């Protein structure tokens, strides 16, 4: 069964544009200029139960708007959403019982009260029985290592501690579907790793579906096999992270350091006829060759360069996912 | 039933938090009390020279004030939605509310309750007993029940009006200063409406029916038979306004645009 089914989903916002000057302000009083801006533009996708999907895009690409429609917070302008077999907005109160939500920039917990009191209140809100709670949450609390934090008020926790508690709070009712909006924003590496491991674990243990938005692509690389990429409200890529890399990786980057003094022009001459672009980092005397798509060019460039100069060090870098994605956005299209 | 359980869960939690900050609690009760005393002194000063105002005696007006305090105290304990726009719309806290399986308005009531305002109920009843004693009013066996019904009617009138104003935030982005103004207008309800001109009286009865929080229901206990019709309309007006406000709220939530991150 599909956990999420989205068909031609669209959300429009009315944006007012104000006229300039005092005269314009007066005219705005009577007739306002507004245009309709689609934040999400007729997108369709499905997510299967148990999948971990990374939902990525620049700021303003429509990620949060989509998540808010999927969680029942916003009503779509048009299109169909079925999540966990329900229409999120129409059956909101029944529906939210089956999802867990973590908004990185917004707390689910009560600020003034101890973490365990928040948990207890949420347990009542979600009608979780004592047996289920103990069985499930003991494990969650142990894995996230938040036992010592339970009796502290939320306002006294550090960001990393709070996020772990937020995650635990979102799982109190053991939902089959988890939405995470920027869950690792501002966290240090150790906490990030802990959270990732934890997510992997619950995904394996309960077959929990996870939809994750983040700016940190290492999160996506660590967790998601599938990514959905959004740009200006449209899906520009939906598929395996691996094939995204293969499809969009544009050659490799080779860094040379030479024992003798090298000239950029001479290097260009040596490798003339090949698909390659040279760059020089003046400070460190590091020469960088960016090769083309063609498989042969890496060995060709190295062979010819080595023939011309004595080499101290060679490094071959694969472009990171981040670079690939930046590339895609810069060119605006897939 | 579930809502009742949840209600008491929140109340218990609220008390726990409040008791941790004891000094705060005392200061708040004290300032509430002071506010009410100042209002009472104002009435006493105004009526110090005149025994009657448009046919209402000083004690009657004090009685109306005492009655008004009861629904008002209940309202301010549970319907603190005057900052709904900033707190929930601008800051986007409504996002969180909407991801929980309880009606959104009910959750906000639970989160924002301020039970120390309930102290006003005690003050109000004390004032009514004092003024009632001066007037020689008796209590019949069904009066306490009618009192509860009329008070609840008044609470729902107040709640309905303020929820409707809060709903404006779903349609309009800009902040409005209607809320404080409305608190001011609300105060007019605690004086006999026939001292105002026809237009104001009409507004206080049918448009912003604050008169149903103070003078109309209190008139019943004062035995002012010419007002009885209005007195018994109190629960009806309360139900209508509150029902309408909940309907508007539900419509508004559908139009909620969310706050950007």
Automatic annotation (TrEMBL), chain A:
One of its GO terms (molecular function) is ATP binding. Residues 4-257 form the ABC transporter domain. SMART domains: AAA (SM00382). It comes from the Bacteria. InterPro entries: AAA+_ATPase (IPR003593), ABC_transporter-like_ATP-bd (IPR003439), ABC_transporter_ATP-binding (IPR050763), P-loop_NTPase (IPR027417). Keywords: ATP-binding, Nucleotide-binding, Transport. This is ABC-2 type transport system ATP-binding protein.
UniProtKB/TrEMBL annotation, chain B:
The chain crosses the membrane at residues 25-49, 61-82, 115-133, 145-172, 199-221, 227-249. This is ABC-2 type transport system permease protein. The keyword Transmembrane helix applies. Keywords: Membrane, Transmembrane, Transmembrane helix. InterPro entries: ABC-2_transporter-like.
